[in-house]
Specification:
Distance between the termini: 67 Å
Radius of gyration: 25 Å
Mean pLDDT: 76
Number of strands: 0
Number of domains: 2
Strand content: under 5%
Structural class: mainly alpha
Length: 246
């Protein structure tokens, strides 16, 4: 026997009589399906971890902002740390791929331009994640994903020191790459660059390229001569974790 859908369907929100709907309304105005809950929770958590810090954002706040219950959050992520790990993992995996041969690429004039573009594109795509790693990295020490990111950055600094003997070039690289990171990490908090992202991207690529590509200046040694300069401590690759949200 065919079911009587009008009699069996619950067409009324019992918590709010004013939201009662007819069967025809339920059919013709069906709600748009939500996206994957885990993706929604990650997006909301990322925003709150930047705006209020990891320590300042509770699971209940994340659940409320995403429109889910706290139990729903814990269904998808066993803890707040697990949620942070899931939020940051794609960015950290990209950092590993981007940095593993970065010194070789920066030392090769034919590859340097492509590396700079990839680096800027990475920062544009993952500027919120970079904000957490750079500004909250020390307070989040011990969390595996954070430790991986810090290890990659430390390893790069060592490579700069051992493989780029020119003090001048190390300073150029440090200022250029760290400066780009600082600009975009700050933008993640104080402003929205989405409406002018193409202009920002072009400007950053131009400025960073000018810094990392050595040029011959009258009265100054050429790059080949600079390469013979004595080694000195490497310029820092990323800012020393300033607290931009304080």
């Amino acid at each position: 026997m065919a079911q009587n859908w009008e009699s069996t369907a619950d067409l009324t929100d019992r918590t709010d009589p004013d939201r009662a709907v007819s069967y025809s309304d339920a059919v013709t105005h069906a709600p748009t399906p939500r996206s994957d809950p885990a993706d929604e929770l990650r997006a909301v958590a990322l925003r709150l971890f930047v705006e209020t810090s990891y320590a300042g954002a509770s699971l209940q706040q994340i659940a409320d902002a995403a429109g889910y219950s706290k139990s729903s959050v814990l269904y998808h992520f066993a803890s707040k740390e697990a949620l942070l790990e899931s939020v940051l993992s794609p960015a950290v995996e990209k950092i590993e791929r981007l940095l593993h041969d970065s010194v070789d690429r920066l030392s090769d004039e034919s590859k340097r331009e492509a590396f700079v573009e990839e680096f800027i594109d990475f920062l544009l795509e993952y500027r919120f994640e970079a904000h957490i790693i750079i500004n909250q990295g020390q307070s989040l020490a011990g969390i595996p994903t954070i430790e991986r990111a810090r290890e990659y950055i430390a390893r790069l600094a060592v490579s700069f020191d051992s493989e780029i003997p020119s003090i001048s070039q190390r300073i150029r690289l440090g200022v250029g790459l760290a400066g780009a990171a600082y600009v975009l990490v700050t933008a993640a908090v104080v402003g929205n660059i989405d409406d002018e992202v193409d202009e920002v991207r072009s400007a950053l690529i131009e400025v960073v390229s000018e810094l990392v590509v050595p040029s011959r200046v009258v009265g100054h040694p050429a790059p080949a001569e600079l390469a013979e300069a004595p080694a000195a401590p490497a310029a820092p690759f990323l800012p020393a974790s300033p607290n931009l949200t304080a």
